[in-house]
């Protein structure tokens, strides 16, 4: 079912199985038939852990979405609320419980808090006089969710906003807890590196928690050699840029949500003979994207310009495989061919899907608008005219292009210029307020608070130094057969990944100067291992680093890390963890404030 | 060695032995005269209450608690009412059952714990007799009252009194009774004369022991075995009947020739017993009556008490204590005179070996010939476990070790574990510790319980030694000991907080599994708040620190600990506690010192209490946020006046925050709102709430050019954007004439390519073409291509000779149009 999780260097299926076991145990605690009332936000992340079939096996008969008022009728013994510990949700639950028909056959109520139970919420339930109505109040510790064979995500959308705008470090606490769980399953990670305030905070909490867990310490040979904690605000630039890998573009254009993408249906209509072609499916096509699909695993991290070639190569391989049947003479050969048939058919339908997706994307990437935008982005990244008002942005505003696109570009310019001149900044801001409405003043204030948008202060623009030292721009990026991570943005090498790369070799000491220019402290901590658990490394055996992006990571960055893992001489394999998979658009959205929506 | 069998007495085909355990450490003035005595099984403590029924008001009874070896643990003067019975619980708590039905519970150290009553009616009728019994449910108490009714509880920890049914016609005290725990039921078995009854929850049933002839007389004493399986009855004619406790089978009947009621009657069995027996005690006679009608008689020279154990009977006297038990089979095999068992031979071989005699070899050969060496070693190891005397243990273990040398694949596990266990047992049996438990009892009790018992008796160092010696994981062993020790330590009133904290932290250190908060809670219970706080400092788990600190009303400290933990839920919890606890001013001040808590509280307020949020910002003089707050608030208002006045407040705050841009932008917004309202009222334009750009668009689409113009000036809309705006608006309306006029009004700041493109967007090629000529040369190719004029584009491109432009045109030329392609290619080539 989730075999792709166990293919990687680290078998992440262990984590998934642990999570599933805990879920089953909780469900069995509530004996009899049950209905689950979902906090809608949780359904996506839960889908990565357990399908409906698992719930069904444990007598879950109905599922509802949490909303005020009376619960829909269901002839079940147990009603279980799966919720995040949030006060507003408690009020809804209380409302549900209070409006329950007392005359009706009594149903038992339970709450499962994800990822952690909260005294505050229980207090709230108590104030609403419903706390006593619950037979079970439990927590389901789901911090790090296995997303793919080398990828863990907390699916915690608001982490960046909470940390940098609201000074609310809840997500960091969950991060630290999640890392403790991970260490319980995969052994203590002996080395911790980090850069940024949040990274420092998480490391501190981990070391503190280690003391709490003392004694129950596991005797597991460490799977990870190093943990690298990186604050998103160390590298604000990367998510702003348009990702140019296949997976990155799918995410930029259609948005990948909890591992699924919804695509326009036109290209996917099953063209069967005799069927009228006008019957196009109206519902969008939903596809799951992960390494379980062999072809996707091969092309996801390629620069989009190399995807076409890969697909046609694959097409040849598949049709050649089908041709094999003509060569099959003996019964044995035919039998063998038939046994491979399902696999080949799956490969063929996968190829068809991705060819369709690639066509959809190509329509966009070959458009002039896309090209113009990319040109401007690359100008910013190479430091061309970053201190002046950019006419392209100006035109885009005048033509009322989507606000998020504008914000991404303006922020990018600001980051690449280490802040904008007051006059330039004010100009952009005024343009935005006049065109898109005054309410966005709150969003602009947020962006300033988050450091994405800022006036240039007295100090020198140090971005060129950073760019040069870390080689963030590679003039001759090879998109087809990459030799450097810069291929993921066709020239721009993501800063975050450069930091990771330098850490592995030759080490951060070589870039002390640059590290000082980036926000927040950098540090190294060691965790002592119980004696006897020191790894004896085989000659040529790779080391494994867990890179944790606090505040989100993009698919292009992951692609870059996978590229580094595969480089023959890197000697390092990477597993990625993050609070949430982001792209410039979703990230920007999470930082926006829309006061009007509050009245609704 | 030769004397090992000296204390053996044959009983039927087996042997019994009486081993001396201790010379008692106590000095009892008159022995057990006029005393109530309770001795707990498994080598537990002994309680002695002297003269429980007061003779005169001046003499008060004395209650003493001793270890099994007679070391005094506690001594106190009894100040409560007359006591009928004493008994020990499984947790080593002393139960004192008073005449009035009150049960007082004391701990091992004579500290009063609590009390409960066996029922109201007993106060009047009094308790005639009481018994303490143990069952899987815990420790129970049964009483018979002055009105000859039975009441019992099966577990004193979960007190449920059960009044048993009346025994029909019972007019006097039953001649004997006891409590049976069978088939998960607790029953009372009683005898009245020669009749017997079983009382359970609902009924009273007459029973007849099978095979007990009526002429044997009335039953005056009865006893049930340790496991509640076997029953012994003693009649006034001196007959002893034994059988199953279910009264289904008879085992034996014996005439003891004693007609006086025995003082005590106890079963003596052991696991795999060959010959169980009943031990009866009179003033100066101890009779061991085997089931084979064989008996052993011992003379008693002092008043004693019998304590039934799972594998024997302890005889506690005023000066010494002995263990009477059936000799374990393996010991019989080895030590029986002229035994040829392999173990016996091995022991002999080793003895000869020590004497450097060649006979050693002969014995060994003999064992080996029968291939019994493994068995011999096993026997020696097993026998050693059952021996009480260390020197016997040693000689057996040495023999085993000797035999092991000649075996190649013998697992040393049992040898090693028995060695270890014997060391532990010998340490426990030491008179100073006073826990004379046998190896079988040790196995039954489990090590865990044993350590708990040591801890409970405050033998901490020994407990820790044992944990270390037996290599018990810390959190199961040492940590539990330390935890108990520390909880006890904090109650020492004569030591200063400082000293105790230092001692506790020093000893406990970072021991896994010891919860400082648990220790601190103990300290707090004893009223030592300061000490508790000191101890809490060492608690790594903030989740545990915080609730206790709150309970101790150290809310500020709780807050900083919560913040330290990083657990935001914990912080919220403390904050909401503080909010209810403190007045608003103090609350805010407290938060000010804890930025993390403050920002969390702000988040809370943002969702739950917006007004409080304002106060918070006000207190901190955070003008920027205050301004944002007003802006947000303005959007929640419907009425324009209120909105504007909120925005005015925002302007004031932005000014205070020296955010000139925002202040100006907000002022503009106010101006815009007023402007919109004016037009809405005048023209019904529906502008309210639109952005400046959208407003202008609407105005243009309504043909209100003058007003749009006014906006352009008043709000200083940049030329470029205004031109774009006007261009698209006019095109949207299809007002081409006006567009043309507009294009000529002055030189376009956005050039003319947009004109071309916008016209094309509306599929107006005719209008688009008008503007192509005015496009700057750089954009001309694009313009031509936009209107689909490939030839024009080619001309320009060839003229300008730019690769990019040429190839752009080439990509648009249809392949049939050879001449142009050639021209373009030529131009491209010429350039090179």
Automatic annotation (TrEMBL), chain A:
Record GO biological process: protein transport; vesicle-mediated transport
* Membrane topology, record value: Peripheral membrane protein
Where does this chain mainly localize? cytoplasm
What does it do? Plays a role in vesicle-mediated protein trafficking to lysosomal compartments including the endocytic membrane transport and autophagic pathways. Believed to act as a core component of the putative HOPS and CORVET endosomal tethering complexes which are proposed to be involved in the Rab5-to-Rab7 endosome conversion probably implicating MON1A/B, and via binding SNAREs and SNARE complexes to mediate tethering and docking events during SNARE-mediated membrane fusion.
Key word Protein transport present? yes
Family (UniProt): Belongs to the STXBP/unc-18/SEC1 family.
Q: Where in the cell is it found?
A: Cytoplasmic vesicle, Autophagosome; Cytoplasmic vesicle, Clathrin-coated vesicle; Early endosome; Late endosome membrane
Name the record gives this protein: Vacuolar protein sorting-associated protein 33A
Which InterPro entries does the UniProt record give?
Answer: Sec-1-like_dom1, Sec-1-like_dom3a, Sec1-like, Sec1-like_dom2, Sec1-like_sf, VPS33_dom3b
UniProtKB/TrEMBL annotation, chain B:
The answer to whether keyword Transport applies is yes
Which residue range or ranges hold the Vps16 C-terminal domain? Answer: 514-819
User: Which ranges carry the Vps16 N-terminal domain?
Assistant: 5-416
What is the superkingdom listed in this entry's lineage?
A: Eukaryota
Q: Which UniProt keywords apply?
A: Endosome, Lysosome, Membrane, Protein transport, Transport
Q: How does it assemble?
A: Core component of at least two putative endosomal tethering complexes, the homotypic fusion and vacuole protein sorting (HOPS) complex and the class C core vacuole/endosome tethering (CORVET) complex. Their common core is composed of the class C Vps proteins VPS11, VPS16, VPS18 and VPS33A, which in HOPS further associates with VPS39 and VPS41 and in CORVET with VPS8 and TGFBRAP1. Interacts with RAB5C. Interacts with STX17, MON1B. Associates with adapter protein complex 3 (AP-3) and clathrin:AP-3 complexes.
Please describe what this protein does: Plays a role in vesicle-mediated protein trafficking to lysosomal compartments including the endocytic membrane transport and autophagic pathways. Believed to act as a core component of the putative HOPS and CORVET endosomal tethering complexes.
What protein name does the entry list?
A: Vacuolar protein sorting-associated protein 16 homolog
Organism the protein comes from: Gouania willdenowi
């Amino acid at each position: 079912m989730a075999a792709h999780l166990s293919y990687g260097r680290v078998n992440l299926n262990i984590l998934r199985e642990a999570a599933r076991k805990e879920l089953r145990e909780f469900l069995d605690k509530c004996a009899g038939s049950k209905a689950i009332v979902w906090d809608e936000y949780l359904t996506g992340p839960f889908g990565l852990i357990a399908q409906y079939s698992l719930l069904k096996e444990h007598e879950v008969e109905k599922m509802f979405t949490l909303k005020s008022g009376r619960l829909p009728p269901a002839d079940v013994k147990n009603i279980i609320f799966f919720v995040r510990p949030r006060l507003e949700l408690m009020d809804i639950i209380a409302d549900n419980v209070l409006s329950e028909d007392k005359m009706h056959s009594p149903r038992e109520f339970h709450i499962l808090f994800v990822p952690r139970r909260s005294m505050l919420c229980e207090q709230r339930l108590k104030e609403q006089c419903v706390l006593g109505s619950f037979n079970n109040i439990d927590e389901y510790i789901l911090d790090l969710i296995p997303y793919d064979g080398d990828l863990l995500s907390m699916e915690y959308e608001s982490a960046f906003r909470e940390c940098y705008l609201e000074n609310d470090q809840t997500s960091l606490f969950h991060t630290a807890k999640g890392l403790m769980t991970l260490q319980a399953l995969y052994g203590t990670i002996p080395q911790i590196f980090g850069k940024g305030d949040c990274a420092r905070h998480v490391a501190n909490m981990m070391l503190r928690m280690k003391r709490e867990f003392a004694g129950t310490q596991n005797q597991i040979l460490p799977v990870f050699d190093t943990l690298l904690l990186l604050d998103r605000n160390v590298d604000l630039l990367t998510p702003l840029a348009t990702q140019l890998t296949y997976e990155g573009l799918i995410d930029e254009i259609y948005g990948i949500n909890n591992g699924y993408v919804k695509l326009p249906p036109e290209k996917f209509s099953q063209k069967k003979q005799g069927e009228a072609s006008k019957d196009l499916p109206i519902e969008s096509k939903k596809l799951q994207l992960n390494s379980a699909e062999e072809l996707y695993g091969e092309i996801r991290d390629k620069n989009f310009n190399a995807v076409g070639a890969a697909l046609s190569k694959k097409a040849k391989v598949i049709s050649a495989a089908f041709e094999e049947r003509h060569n099959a003479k003996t019964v044995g050969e035919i039998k063998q061919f038939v046994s491979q048939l399902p696999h080949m058919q799956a490969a063929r339908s996968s190829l068809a899907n991705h060819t369709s997706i690639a066509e959809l994307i190509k329509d966009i990437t070959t458009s002039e608008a896309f090209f113009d935008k990319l040109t401007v982005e690359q100008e910013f990244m190479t430091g061309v005219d970053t201190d002046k008002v950019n006419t392209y942005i100006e035109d885009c505003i005048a033509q009322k292009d989507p606000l998020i696109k504008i914000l991404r570009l303006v922020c990018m310019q600001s980051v690449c210029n280490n802040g904008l001149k007051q006059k330039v900044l004010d100009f952009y801001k005024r343009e935005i307020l006049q065109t898109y409405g005054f309410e966005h003043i709150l969003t602009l204030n947020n962006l300033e608070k988050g450091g994405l948008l800022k006036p240039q202060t007295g100090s020198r623009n140090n971005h060129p130094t950073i760019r040069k030292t870390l080689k963030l721009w590679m003039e001759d990026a090879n998109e087809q057969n990459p030799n450097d991570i810069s291929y993921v943005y066709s020239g721009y090498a993501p800063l975050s990944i450069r930091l990771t790369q330098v850490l592995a070799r030759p080490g951060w000491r070589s870039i002390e100067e640059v590290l000082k220019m980036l926000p927040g402290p950098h540090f190294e901590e060691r965790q002592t291992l119980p004696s006897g658990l020191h790894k004896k490394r085989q000659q040529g055996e790779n080391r494994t680093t867990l890179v944790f992006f606090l505040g989100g990571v993009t698919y292009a960055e992951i692609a870059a890390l996978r590229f580094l893992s595969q480089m023959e001489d890197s000697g390092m394999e990477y597993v990625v963890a993050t609070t949430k998979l982001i792209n410039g658009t979703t990230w920007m959205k999470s930082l926006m404030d829309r006061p009007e929506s509050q009245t609704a | 060695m030769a004397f090992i069998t000296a204390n053996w007495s044959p009983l039927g085909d087996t042997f019994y032995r009486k081993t001396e355990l201790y010379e008692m450490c106590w000095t009892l003035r008159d022995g057990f005269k006029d005393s109530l005595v309770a001795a707990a099984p498994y080598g537990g403590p002994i309680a002695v209450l002297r003269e429980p029924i007061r003779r005169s008001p001046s003499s008060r009874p004395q209650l003493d608690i001793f270890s099994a070896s007679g070391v005094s643990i506690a001594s106190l003067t009894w100040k409560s009412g007359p006591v009928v019975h004493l008994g020990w619980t499984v947790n080593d708590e002393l139960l004192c059952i008073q005449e009035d039905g009150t049960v007082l519970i004391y701990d091992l150290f004579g500290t009063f714990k609590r009390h409960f009553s066996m029922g109201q009616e007993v106060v009047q009728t009094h308790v005639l007799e009481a018994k303490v019994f143990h069952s899987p449910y815990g420790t129970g108490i049964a009483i018979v009252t002055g009105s000859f009714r039975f009441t019992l509880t099966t577990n004193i920890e979960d007190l449920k009194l059960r009044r048993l049914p009346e025994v029909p016609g019972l007019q006097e005290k039953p001649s004997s009774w006891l409590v049976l725990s069978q088939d998960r039921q607790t029953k009372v078995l009683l005898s009245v004369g020669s009749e017997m009854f079983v009382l359970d929850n609902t009924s009273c049933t007459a029973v007849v022991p099978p095979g007990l002839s009526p002429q044997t007389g009335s039953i005056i004493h009865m006893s049930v075995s340790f496991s509640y399986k076997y029953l012994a009855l003693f009649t006034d004619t001196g007959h002893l009947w034994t059988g199953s406790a279910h009264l289904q089978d008879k085992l034996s009947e014996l005439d003891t020739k004693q007609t006086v009621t025995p003082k005590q009657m106890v079963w003596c069995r052991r696991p795999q017993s060959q010959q169980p027996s009943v031990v009866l005690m009179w003033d100066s006679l101890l009779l061991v009556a085997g089931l084979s009608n064989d008996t052993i008689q011992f003379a008693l020279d002092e008043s004693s008490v019998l304590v039934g154990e799972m594998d024997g009977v302890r005889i506690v006297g005023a000066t010494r204590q002995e263990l009477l038990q059936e000799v374990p089979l393996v010991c019989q095999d080895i030590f029986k005179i002229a035994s040829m068992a392999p173990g016996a031979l091995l022991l002999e071989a080793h003895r000869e070996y020590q004497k450097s005699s060649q006979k050693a070899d002969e014995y060994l050969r003999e064992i080996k010939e029968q291939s019994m060496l493994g068995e011999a070693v096993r026997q020696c190891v097993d026998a050693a476990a059952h021996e009480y005397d260390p020197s016997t243990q040693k000689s057996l273990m040495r023999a085993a070790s000797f035999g092991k040398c000649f075996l190649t694949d013998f697992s040393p596990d049992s040898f090693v574990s028995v060695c270890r266990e014997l060391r532990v047992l010998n340490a426990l049996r030491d008179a100073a510790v006073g826990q004379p438990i046998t190896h079988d009892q040790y196995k039954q009790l489990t090590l865990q319980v044993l350590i708990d018992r040591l801890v409970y008796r405050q033998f901490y160092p020994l407990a820790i030694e044992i944990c270390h010696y037996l290599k018990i994981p810390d959190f199961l062993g040492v940590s539990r000991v330390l935890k108990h020790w520390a909880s006890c330590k904090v109650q020492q009133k004569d030591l200063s907080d400082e000293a105790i904290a230092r001692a506790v932290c020093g000893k406990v250190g970072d021991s896994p599994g010891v919860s400082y908060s648990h220790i601190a809670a103990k300290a707090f219970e004893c009223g030592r708040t300061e000490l508790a706080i000191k101890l809490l400092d060492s608690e790594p788990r903030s989740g545990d620190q915080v609730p206790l600190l709150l309970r101790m009303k150290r809310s500020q400290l709780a807050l900083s600990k919560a913040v330290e933990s990083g657990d935001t839920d914990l912080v919220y919890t403390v904050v909401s506690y503080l909010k209810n606890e403190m007045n608003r001013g103090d609350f805010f001040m407290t938060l000010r010192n804890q930025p993390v808590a403050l920002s969390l509280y702000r988040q809370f307020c943002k969702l739950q209490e917006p007004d409080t949020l304002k106060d918070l910002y006000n207190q901190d003089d955070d003008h920027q946020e205050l301004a944002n707050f007003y802006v947000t608030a303005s959007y929640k208002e419907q009425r324009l006046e209120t909105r504007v006045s909120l925005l005015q407040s925002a302007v004031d705050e932005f000014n205070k925050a020296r955010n000139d841009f925002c202040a100006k932008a907000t002022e503009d917004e106010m101006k815009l709102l007023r402007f919109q309202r004016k037009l809405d009222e005048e023209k019904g334009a529906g502008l309210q709430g639109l952005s400046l750009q959208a407003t202008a668009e609407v105005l243009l689409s309504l043909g209100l050019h003058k007003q749009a113009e006014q906006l352009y000036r008043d709000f200083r809309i940049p030329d470029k954007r205004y031109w774009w705006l006007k261009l698209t608006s006019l095109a949207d309306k299809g007002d081409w004439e006006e567009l043309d006029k507009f294009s000529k009004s002055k030189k376009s700041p956005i050039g003319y390519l947009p004109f071309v493109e916008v016209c094309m967007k509306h599929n107006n090629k005719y209008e688009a073409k008008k503007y192509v000529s005015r496009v700057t040369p750089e954009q001309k190719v694009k313009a031509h291509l936009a209107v689909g004029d490939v030839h024009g584009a080619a001309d320009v491109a060839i003229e300008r000779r730019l690769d990019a432009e040429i190839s752009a045109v080439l990509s648009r030329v249809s392949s049939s149009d050879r001449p142009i392609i050639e021209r373009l290619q030529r131009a491209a080539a010429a350039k090179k």
